[in-house]
Design brief:
Length: 467
């Protein structure tokens, strides 16, 4: 290795080290030959780099960095464009070499010179692209700048901003249209007409809203209520779908091919996840997208009946459990970006063994489901569940217009007893490995004979429960 490669590059440039070396040689020569002029020259050669180093450390140039992601957030495997704008706001001049620090999964960090050749108004603009195949939240930046003094003798490297968080959401896959909507129709709209020509005795009324035609004003009801009332000849309701997203460590850990791995989170730690849980996350966003496109309002819960995203660091509103419209779907996608497995890091026992974590599929969940009884389908995306857990969840089918359960496991054969318990309660249930595409698992619910014809509407809480 060359000597110059051994020298620390964060203090002096090659020119600075050269002056220091020349000063040392002159100082040695002055001692040997007794020449005062060489001594003066050596002092000058040594002091000049040191003074420049002190100056660049004391008079730190100041910058303002603006970073924009387009799109933000971005889906997995899709590219986002990062636009940087860097402007000098303090004293100092000269050029600097800047580098945008990136997580290792994005490859080599981009470097650029400041000011840029195309700089306008004192602001330099840069652009590059990023793509991630894994969901998560990633810290992009900070920008580090390496400054030099006007003589090019000393160097100083420091961060000039704090970086920004890029959220990578799971990408939904298109699902086939099934009979999930039941009597409500696949368009997700339930229209109930009271009468073609309602009479004054049984007409439904509501308060006047801006834009209602005056011909629909119900004058008798207006006089009775003391406020302008209009006929409500057609009541249009938006159906609701409830999704139970399992996120227990014990349900997705262990077993053959669980595939534990991590995605770098914003704090530098890895998310606790697995191959089966990643499949469940993709299934969840795909189902939510499928239903949202059909005008369903969505409720997402965890197996304990709590908001599904209560522990997700990327959730815009962790305590929210109801979502609707495009904004609601976007909130779900962002919440799923950094969701990870939670709970005890060992499996709970079955058949009377001691439970390793909080109770699941209990009365708290049932109370949440009963509050929205029969307003739409109930869908559960589950990891491995024991037969006793399946028997506890089975009565929940009575609270949905339809009930569907997908168990993702690398060993579906081990879930036969759990599937049977769910089907007896009225669920259409299937167990699939991660090798089965999500659309195929979804299409299973429309295959002939895939689920028993057990009616779920009359199942009561507690019926058939065995622990």
């Amino acid at each position: 290795m060359a000597l110059r490669d051994r020298l620390p590059r964060h203090l002096f440039s090659q020119r600075g080290w050269g002056l220091l070396a020349a000063g040392a040689v002159c100082l040695l020569s002055a001692q040997i030959m007794g020449r005062r002029d060489l001594l003066s020259l050596s002092v000058l050669l040594i002091v000049l780099p040191l003074v420049s180093l002190a100056g660049i450390r004391l008079l730190k140039p100041r910058f303002q960095v603006y970073r924009e992601f387009n799109p933000s957030p971005v889906e997995t495997s899709a590219a986002t464009t990062v636009r940087l704008a860097v402007a000098r706001t303090g004293y100092g001049g000269g050029r600097a070499i800047m580098e945008e620090r990136l997580p290792p999964r994005f490859g080599e960090s981009p470097a650029f010179h400041f000011p840029a050749r195309s700089a306008k108004g004192g602001t330099s603009r840069y652009e590059y692209h990023l793509r991630s195949t894994k969901r998560g939240q990633y810290l992009i930046g900070p920008v580090t700048a390496e400054f030099t003094d006007p003589f090019g003798l000393s160097l100083h490297r420091r961060s000039i901003d704090d970086g920004d968080t890029l959220t990578v959401t799971p990408a939904a896959v298109e699902l086939p249209v099934t009979g999930l909507a039941g009597a409500r129709g696949n368009d997700g709209i339930t229209a109930t007409r009271t009468r073609a020509n309602p009479s004054d005795d049984d007409v439904m009324t509501r308060e006047y809203r801006p834009g209602d035609p005056m011909r629909r004003v119900h004058w008798a009801a207006t006089a009775h209520h003391g406020a302008l009332m209009v006929r409500q000849e057609e009541s249009v309701t938006t159906p609701e779908a409830t999704i139970i997203l399992d996120q227990r460590f014990a349900a997705f850990s262990g077993g053959h091919g669980s595939g534990f791995g991590g995605n770098a989170a914003v704090d530098g730690h890895e998310m606790i996840t697995s191959g089966t849980f990643e499949w469940a996350v993709v299934a969840a966003i795909s189902i939510c997208t499928h239903l949202s496109e059909r005008n369903y309002a969505l409720r997402l819960l965890d197996p304990r009946g709590e908001p599904a995203f209560l522990r997700s660091p990327s959730a815009p509103e962790p305590e929210s459990e109801e979502f609707s419209g495009v904004s609601g779907l976007q909130s779900i996608a962002e919440s799923l970006a950094a969701i990870q497995l939670s709970g005890p890091h060992h499996a709970a026992r079955d058949h009377g063994g001691q439970d390793a974590g909080p109770a699941v599929f209990d009365d708290h969940l049932m109370d949440k489901l009963s509050a929205h009884r029969m307003r739409g389908p109930l869908i559960a995306v589950l990891g491995r569940i024991s037969p006793s857990e399946a028997r506890a969840l089975a009565p929940a089918a009575g609270y949905g217009a339809n009930a569907f359960a997908i168990i993702v496991s690398e060993r579906p054969a081990d879930s036969e007893d759990s599937l049977e318990a769910l089907r007896r309660g009225g669920w259409r249930a299937v167990a699939v490995p991660t090798s089965v595409p999500v659309p195929d698992a979804w299409a299973h619910f429309d295959q002939g004979g895939a689920a028993p014809a057990t009616a779920a509407a009359d199942v009561r809480r507690g019926a058939g429960v065995g622990r």
